[in-house]
C-alpha cells in the first residue's frame, strides 16, 4: 500500500520534487541525491504516519532539508550561502513552471542530442541510470559517465535553469518535443532485443508529452506531438501477433485499437490543425489519425494522406518522410509510380543503412510481380536489422516469394 | 556575473584585421554598447593578426607559424560578463561574422552557478 503510494509519487512527482529542490541548491547532483533519499525516507515515514495528503509537498520539504544538510556537510555551504537565497521567490504551487525549467535545462542546445535524451530520462522522469543504459544498449558505466559529463557542463558552462525567453521558446521547445518523440520511438521499436524497459520508455515519453501539453496548452505543436503519441499508443497492442511477430498496418486487427486514445488524439488535432502553418508533429499526427480512422486498410483515404505528406515534406524535407509518402502513393497511384520514388531515394544515398528502404522496395517489387528482385530487397533489409521481430517478418516475406535455397544464406555472385 | 570568452573564428584574410571591410569594423565597434544594452558587460576584446604572423614555441624549439592549423583561424577574443550561458549566447550573437562563427567558453574563475 505504502510502497504503491511511493511508487506513484515517484512516477508523478519526481520531476516536480527535483525541480523544486534544484531551485534551492542550484546544484543538480546534490539535489538528485537528496530527492532519492527523500523517497527512501518516505517508505518508512509514510508507513508510520500514513500517506500525506500532498505527497509532492512532503517529499519536497524533506528533499530540500536533506540537500541543505548535504551542502553543509560538504563544507561548501558557507561558500554557497549567498547563492542559496531563493532569488525567484518560490510560490508553493509553482511546480508546473519548475518542471518546465527542468525539461528545458535537459534539452538545452549546448548539450548533445544523446545527452539531452539521457538527462531528460534521468532528471525529469527519474529513470535509474542502469535502465537508461539498457535502453540505449551501452554499459552502465558509459551511461553514468555520459550523465556526469552533461551535468558538469550544465554547472560549468552556466546552462540556466530556466524556461527560455519568448523569442527563444519556439526553437527550444522543438528540441524538447524532439527529445520526447525520440524517447517514444526508442520505446516503440527497439533497435534490437525485446525488453520491458522499452514499454516503460514509451510510457514515460507519453507522460512527458501530456505534461508539456498541460503546461503549454496553447502551443499547437505540443498538442500535435501528444496526438501523435496517442495514436501510436492506441495501435500498440496490434503491432505484433500473439507470438511476437511483426504485423503490417494492413494486417492489424483494427477492432483492438484503443478508441478512447484515438478520440483524444482527434480532439487535440482539431485544435492543432487550426494553426496557419501546422508543424511537423501535427502533420505526422494527422497522418497517423487518418490511418486510425479508416475502417479498413483498403478504405484508407490515401488521397488525404498523400496530401498531408506533401505538406509535411514541404516543411520537413526528410528522406524518411519521402519514403513513407511513396508507400501512400503506391496505394493511390499504384506500385509502379511509387517504385520510381523509392529508386530516387535509393540513389540519393542518405537512406543507405535504413532498413525500411529495401523493405518498402521489396513490397513494391512483389506487387509488380517481380518476386526474384523482391527477395533480394528483403535480404538487403534483413541485413540491416537486429530486431528479432523484424528479422522474423522479413525472413518470412523473403521465403514466401523466393526459392527456399535463395533465402537466409550467403549468396555467391 | 560569470565571465565568458567569446572566441571568434573566421576564414583567414591575407592581411587579417586590416582587410576587414569598414562596415564590418563599424559593427564591431558597436558591440560593447549593445552588450551593455542587453545587461552584459564587455571586459575586453582582442583582434589577432593572421596566423602567418604567429610563432610557436615547443620546449626550446622556436618555429614559424601557428601551433594548430585549421581551416578557420582564431581571429579574435572577447571577454564578457553574462548572467548565464543563454545570456552569453545572446551577447555572442552580436558579434559580426563574415565567414565563420564564434564559440562561447566559460572562464575558469567564475564562481556563480545560476
In short:
The complex is a heterodimer of chains A (413) and B (114). Chain A is built from 19 helices and no strands. With 413 residues, chain A is mainly α.
If you had to describe this structure to a student in words, what would you say it looks like?
The complex is a heterodimer of chains A (413) and B (114). Residues 84-95 and 404-413 of chain A have low confidence and may be disordered. Chain A has helices at 2-25, 28-49, 55-73, 77-84, 95-106, 113-124, 129-135, 140-157, 169-188, 196-215, 220-235, 259-272, 280-293, 302-315, 319-333, 335-348, 356-367, 371-382, 388-401. Chain A is mostly helical. Chain A is 69% helix and 0% strand. In chain A, helix 1 packs across helix 5, helix 11 packs antiparallel against helix 12 and helix 14 runs antiparallel to helix 15 (319-333). The termini of chain A are far apart. The radius of gyration of chain A is 24 Å and the shape is elongated. Chain B has 114 residues and is of the alpha+beta class. Chain B has 2 helices and 6 strands; from the N terminus they run E-H-E-E-E-E-H-E. In chain B, the strands form 2 sheets. Chain B has a 4-stranded antiparallel β-sheet with strand order 2-5-1-6, with helices on one face. Chain B has a two-stranded antiparallel ribbon with strand order 3-4. In chain B, strand 3 (55-58) and strand 4 (61-64) form a beta hairpin. Chain B is globular and about 45 Å long. Chain B starts with a strand and ends in an 8-residue tail after the last strand. Chains A and B meet through helix 8 of A and helix 2 and strand 6 of B.
Amino acid at each position: 500500500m505504502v510502497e504503491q503510494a511511493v511508487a506513484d509519487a515517484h512516477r508523478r512527482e519526481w520531476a516536480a520534487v527535483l525541480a523544486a529542490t534544484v531551485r534551492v541548491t542550484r546544484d543538480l547532483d546534490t539535489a538528485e541525491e537528496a530527492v532519492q533519499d527523500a523517497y527512501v525516507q518516505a517508505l518508512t515515514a509514510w508507513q508510520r504516519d500514513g500517506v500525506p495528503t500532498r505527497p509532492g509537498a512532503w517529499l519536497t520539504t524533506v528533499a530540500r532539508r536533506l540537500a541543505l544538510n548535504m551542502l553543509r556537510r560538504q563544507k561548501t555551504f558557507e561558500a554557497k550561502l549567498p547563492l542559496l537565497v531563493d532569488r525567484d521567490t518560490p510560490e508553493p504551487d509553482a511546480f508546473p513552471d519548475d518542471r518546465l525549467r527542468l525539461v528545458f535545462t535537459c534539452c538545452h542546445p549546448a548539450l548533445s542530442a544523446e545527452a539531452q535524451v539521457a538527462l531528460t530520462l534521468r532528471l525529469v522522469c527519474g529513470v535509474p541510470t542502469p535502465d537508461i543504459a539498457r535502453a540505449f544498449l551501452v554499459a552502465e558505466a558509459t551511461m553514468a559517465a555520459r550523465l556526469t559529463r552533461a551535468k558538469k557542463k550544465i554547472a560549468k558552462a552556466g546552462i540556466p535553469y530556466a524556461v527560455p525567453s519568448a523569442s527563444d521558446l519556439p526553437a527550444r521547445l522543438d528540441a524538447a518535443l524532439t527529445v520526447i518523440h525520440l524517447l517514444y520511438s526508442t520505446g516503440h521499436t527497439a533497435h534490437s532485443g525485446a525488453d520491458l524497459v522499452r514499454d516503460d520508455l514509451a510510457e514515460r515519453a507519453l507522460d512527458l508529452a501530456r505534461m508539456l501539453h498541460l503546461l503549454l496548452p496553447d502551443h499547437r505543436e505540443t498538442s500535435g506531438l501528444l496526438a501523435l503519441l496517442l495514436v501510436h499508443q492506441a495501435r500498440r497492442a496490434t503491432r505484433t501477433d500473439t507470438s511476437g511477430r511483426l504485423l503490417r498496418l494492413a494486417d492489424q486487427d483494427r477492432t483492438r485499437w484503443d478508441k478512447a486514445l484515438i478520440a483524444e488524439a482527434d480532439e487535440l488535432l482539431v485544435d492543432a490543425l487550426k494553426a496557419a502553418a501546422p508543424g511537423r508533429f501535427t502533420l505526422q499526427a494527422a497522418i497517423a489519425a487518418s490511418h486510425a480512422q479508416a475502417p479498413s486498410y483498403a478504405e484508407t483515404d490515401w488521397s488525404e494522406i498523400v496530401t498531408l505528406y506533401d505538406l509535411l515534406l514541404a516543411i520537413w524535407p526528410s528522406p524518411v518522410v519521402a519514403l513513407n509518402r511513396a508507400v501512400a502513393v503506391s496505394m493511390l497511384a499504384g506500385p509502379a509510380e511509387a517504385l520510381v520514388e523509392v529508386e530516387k531515394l535509393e540513389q540519393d544515398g542518405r537512406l543507405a543503412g535504413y532498413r525500411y528502404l529495401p523493405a518498402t522496395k521489396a513490397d513494391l517489387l512483389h506487387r509488380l510481380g517481380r518476386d526474384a528482385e523482391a527477395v533480394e530487397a528483403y535480404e538487403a533489409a534483413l541485413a540491416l536489422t537486429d530486431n528479432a521481430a523484424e528479422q522474423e517478418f522479413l525472413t518470412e516475406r523473403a521465403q514466401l516469394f523466393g526459392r527456399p535455397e535463395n533465402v537466409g544464406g550467403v549468396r555467391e555472385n | 556575473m560569470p565571465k565568458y570568452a567569446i572566441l571568434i573564428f573566421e576564414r583567414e584574410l591575407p592581411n587579417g584585421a586590416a582587410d576587414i571591410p569598414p562596415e564590418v569594423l563599424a559593427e564591431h565597434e558597436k558591440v560593447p554598447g549593445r552588450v551593455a544594452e542587453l545587461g552584459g558587460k564587455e571586459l575586453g576584446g582582442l583582434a589577432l593578426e593572421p596566423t602567418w604572423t604567429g610563432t610557436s614555441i615547443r620546449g626550446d624549439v622556436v618555429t614559424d607559424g601557428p601551433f594548430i592549423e585549421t581551416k578557420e583561424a582564431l581571429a579574435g577574443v572577447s571577454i564578457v560578463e553574462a548572467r548565464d550561458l543563454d545570456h552569453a549566447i545572446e551577447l555572442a550573437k552580436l558579434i559580426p561574422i563574415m565567414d565563420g562563427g564564434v564559440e562561447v567558453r566559460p572562464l575558469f574563475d567564475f564562481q556563480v552557478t545560476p
